[in-house]
Structure formats: C-alpha cells, structure tokens
C-alpha cells in the first residue's frame, strides 16, 4: 500500500477547482446546519455529510483542499439543512450519517453495542449495552466500541495509577503474594499487603469518577431548547437518544420516535447541554 504522503501528493496533482459547483455555493447560507455532497441524480448513497456553524464557509474549505479532489469531481449537487446552532447540527449530522451511509464518511458509523467497565467489590468487569443499558445503570465507566478497547483503557488506568492487575482481574495471581508488576514497583502492593485492599478500591473509584456514564436524569423524553440568531429548535431526547427536532414545542410534543441501542455519539453531544444548566429543558409527556 502506498504511503499516505504519496496518495495526498497524487490527489493534489489532480486537483482542479470545482467550477461546476460554484452555483451550489451561492445557494448555501452562512449559518449553522448540515450539508451533503451528492452525486448524480440516480445515485443511491450521498458522497459526504458534514456539519458546521457556517455551512457556506465550511463547504468552501472543502473547495480549497486538494486532498478532496476525488470527492469534488464526483459531486454534482450540494444540499443543506439549517439548524438553530451547533447542538442541532451535531445531532443531525450523526443521525444522517448513520441512516444514509455516505461513501466518504468514516466517523459516526452506526455501532450496535457499547462496552463499559463495571465495578463491584473492587473487581472490574466489561459489560455491553445489550446486557445493561448505560442510560439506566448508575455505575458504568467509559464507552468503548469493543471489549478489547475497554480492557486497554483499564490497563492504562492501572499503569497510570499503580493499581494491581491481579485485584482488577486483568491477570491471575497468588493471594498474598506480590504480582509481577509489584516486584517492578509498578503496583502499589495491594496484592501482598503493601496497600490495603480498601485503599486500592477507593483509589480506583476516584480514578473512574471522571469516566462515569451519566444515567438519564429524567423519567421520560425532554425537549432541549436551542436558540440561534434567527432560529429556535427543540431537540427531543429520551435515554440519551436523539429522536428529532422541531421549531415549536407543539411540534416537538408530536415527535415520538423509537429508542434502540444506546447511542454513544448522541450521548457525547448531549451530556453537557443536558446537565450543565445552560439550556432550557422541557419535560414531555411519557
């Protein structure tokens, strides 16, 4: 496989300013929202979906990027959807990428399960969202795409904080005897009495606090209000899952939608706006 640098140089050499798309640029607003590069009329899949607080400015950035020459040559049209602000743009972009499967997007693809660390009596296990809903469980830590990624995160936590692999359940050991990492001074010694088991567990809890997945703090769906300079939206959310947006509360109340698997991307987008108190939250009927 050719190095990335060579592929970029080749793309730059083939780059030509996409004059055929200039009329499309003129129709784009300098406002928040989601934009879509489209191919020929009959093409099933869009080419690329992106978001910005300045749709026109962001699309023009694509035009100035030689590495995107192939995308620009294939593109025939550019559509857009306005949003009130960045929250709505992020939510809509993630939703559209998962449902429309654009050819050039790699991030935000749909993942069927999320894996988290669960702590019980000092032992850590990996659980998945098919068994325990992260929106409902009170003590899950981290969101990972695979059990391996979750265990890698746990090892990193142990290494950074001199926690014991044996007590964490990462490796087997003999009770009362130093683990291999303790002999290397990489473990504080809870495995052989150099540190109390209770102290080890407390340190682990403190380290995991920042990674705790927030349980859904409401009894049902809510509408999160986002105000822009010339537009207002109500984003309907239940169990950290995005169900849709409307420009009035009346229309928002009509949004039902169905929640499925826990959506890590929606959670990451919504956690701060929902919990920080900076946005109006309207509870909706269950």
TrEMBL record:
Signal peptide: none annotated. InterPro entries: GIY-YIG_endonuc, GIY-YIG_endonuc_sf, GIY-YIG_UvrC_Cho, UvrABC_protein_C. GO terms for molecular function: hydrolase activity. It comes from the Bacteria. SUPFAM superfamilies: GIY-YIG endonuclease. PROSITE patterns: GIY_YIG. It comes from Luteimonas flava. This is Excinuclease cho. Transmembrane segments: none annotated. Keywords: DNA damage, DNA excision, DNA repair, Excision nuclease, Hydrolase, SOS response. Residues 30-106 form the GIY-YIG domain.
């Amino acid at each position: 496989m050719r190095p990335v640098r060579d592929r970029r140089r080749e793309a730059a050499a083939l780059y030509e300013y996409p004059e055929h798309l200039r009329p499309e640029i003129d129709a784009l607003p300098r406002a928040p929202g989601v934009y879509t590069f489209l191919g020929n009329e009959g093409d099933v899949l869009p080419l690329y979906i992106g978001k910005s607080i300045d749709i026109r400015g962001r699309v023009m950035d694509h035009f100035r990027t030689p590495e995107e020459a192939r995308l620009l040559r294939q593109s025939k049209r550019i559509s857009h959807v306005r949003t009130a602000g960045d929250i709505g743009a992020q939510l809509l972009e993630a939703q559209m990428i998962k449902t429309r499967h654009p050819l050039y997007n790699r991030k935000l693809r749909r993942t069927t399960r999320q894996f988290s660390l669960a702590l019980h009596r000092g032992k850590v296990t990996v659980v998945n969202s098919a068994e325990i809903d992260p929106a409902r469980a009170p003590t899950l830590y981290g969101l990972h795409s695979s059990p391996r990624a979750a265990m890698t995160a746990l090892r990193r936590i142990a290494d950074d904080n001199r926690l014991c692999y044996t007590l964490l359940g990462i490796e087997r050991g003999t009770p009362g005897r130093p683990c291999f990492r303790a002999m290397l001074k990489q473990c504080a010694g809870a495995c052989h009495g150099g540190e109390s088991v209770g102290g080890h567990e407390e340190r682990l809890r403190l380290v995991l606090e920042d990674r705790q997945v927030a349980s859904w703090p409401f009894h049902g769906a809510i509408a999160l209000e986002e105000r822009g300079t010339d537009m207002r939206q109500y984003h309907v959310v239940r169990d950290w899952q995005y169900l849709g947006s409307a420009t009035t509360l009346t229309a928002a109340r009509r949004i039902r939608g169905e929640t499925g698997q826990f959506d890590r991307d929606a959670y990451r987008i919504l956690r701060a706006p929902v919990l920080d108190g900076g946005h109006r939250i309207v509870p909706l009927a269950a």
